[in-house]
Amino acid sequence: MPTIELAALLNHSDTAGRPVILKAAVAAGVLWKCRKSACSHHNDAGEELCRGCGRNSNGQPLSDSQPGPYVAPHEIWEMLREEVRDHFLAQEITPLPDAVTFPWRSDDPTSTWSLTDLVVHHGGRQEPYSSDLQNTEIESALEEVARAVEPGYLEDLRITLQP
């Protein structure tokens, strides 16, 4: 069977053919369509969040992603949220990100999440964010979360900045 890129099909389709191609791609599991009615953006199957509005494949807003088999106590999670929010407010990052992802730090097996190379979320847009958060309250809060949730290898942590 010939391999055809979806982008090539869409680029060469006419106005009537485009919805048919997109519908077939969704049915085949190559794309998923955002369920937020104001967005309806088509996203690649491997993407967790909509590139158009930042919601997940069920149309739900961006949410926290706690790694590990256990749920961190509410107080610890809220302490982390407050420390991260305070950091971005102090940096005068405008607009304030919707969420921040701390990627797993694979180069050091004794630690958990990166304190230097983060990902900030603004709706459907994700941007790398470099900062040194070592020896900060954020590092202490992340250590508390790690003790509570016992994260597994390669489990990223995402925290929304709105409670």
Detailed description of the structure:
This protein has 163 residues and is of the alpha+beta class. It has 2 domains: 6-44, no CATH class; 74-160, no CATH class. It is 29% helix and 16% strand. It is built from 4 helices and 6 strands; from the N terminus they run ααββαβββαβ. Helix 3 packs antiparallel against helix 4 (137-149). The longest helix is centred in the middle third of the chain and has 17 residues, at 74-90. The N and C termini lie far apart (50 Å).
Topology diagram in text:
Blueprint: H1 6-11, H2 17-27, E1 31-33, E2 42-44, H3 74-90, E3 99-102, E4 117-122, E5 125-130, H4 137-149, E6 157-160
Antiparallel strand pairs: 1-2, 3-4, 3-6, 4-5
Helix pairs in contact: 3-4
Question: Features of this protein?
Answer:
2 domains; single chain; alpha+beta; 163 residues; four-stranded antiparallel sheet; 4 helices; two-stranded antiparallel ribbon; 6 strands; 16% strand
